[in-house]
Design a protein that fits this description.
Elements lengths: L2 E6 L9 H16 L4 E6 L10 H11 L9 H19 L2 E7 L7 H10 L6 E4 L2 E4 L5 E8 L14 H11 L4 E8 L8 H18 L1
Parallel strand pairs: 1-2, 1-3, 3-6, 6-7
Antiparallel strand pairs: 4-5
């Protein structure tokens, strides 16, 4: 039995969002194809995702200098514990599907806060004399993203910073089995929007079967 972590970085539901429509189709098809697997939903807009702020730095500083967790302030403790919980949940899963919309060539800021939470030395990567080494080589991940324009090919592909950043993070964690599913161009070609959305949903369903 495997665990799929469904990470949602979108404030809207599938009636308003192409990413969510494809993401939900993926998860439904995944459940049908892998009935024994566990699917955990992590909705970043509803979950508590602490930012790395002054409390987190002071909490980490106290722990690094040997203080007990009980000596941290309530804010420090709750943020540091929550960040640990998020990375532990990530490490415990076997597969990941990230759902994000393209916003300003990237993904929503809550997604960056989540990436900051799961980049943890000793858990998702480690530093060695030869450089950093990813600690999650056996996992696999998919990023589903809707984009108003077309970014998977030139001339706009160099402007795309969200999937490429996530790809770098996955590589940093040692996750080489990472792919993207893009529903793109529906704002640029509004007359084709319905077909572009359906194509994305169909691809999501097909990918879910072998994921
Ligand atoms: C805040 C914001 C920023 C956006 N930035 C871009 C962008 O940089 N490039 C683009 O092609 N479309 C951009 N769009 C359009 C979205 O990518 C497009 O509507 C896409 O369908 C969003 O995903 P969704 O359908 O899952 O909400 C932006 C939309 C919003 C709301």
């Amino acid at each position: 039995m495997a665990t799929l972590l469904h990470i949602i970085a979108h404030p809207n539901d599938e009636t308003q969002s192409f990413s969510m429509a494809a993401g939900n189709a993926f998860v439904q098809a995944y459940r049908e194809a892998h009935p024994k697997d566990e699917v955990i939903h992590l909705d970043l807009y509803k979950a508590h995702i602490p930012h790395i702020d002054a409390d987190v730095f002071s909490g980490w500083g106290k722990l690094r200098s040997g203080s007990e967790l009980s000596t941290l302030s309530a804010e420090e403790k709750s943020k540091v514990n929550r960040l640990n919980e998020l990375v532990d949940q990530f490490v415990a899963a076997d597969k990941y599907v990230f759902i994000t919309p393209m916003w300003n060539f990237s993904y929503p800021p809550i997604m960056k806060a989540y990436i900051d939470a799961i980049c943890a030395a000793g858990k998702t990567f480690k530093y060695t004399a030869e450089g950093p080494v990813g600690l999650l080589p056996d996992k696999k991940a998919l990023h589903i993203q809707a984009r108003g324009g077309i970014y998977s090919t030139a001339p706009m592909s160099d402007m795309e910073m969200g999937h490429r950043h996530l790809a770098a993070i996955m590589q940093f964690f040692g996750i080489t089995d990472f792919q993207g599913l893009f529903i793109e161009g529906h704002n640029q070609y509004p007359d084709r929007a319905a077909a572009i959305k359906q194509e994305g949903i169909d691809k999501a369903v097909s990918l879910a079967k072998s994921f």
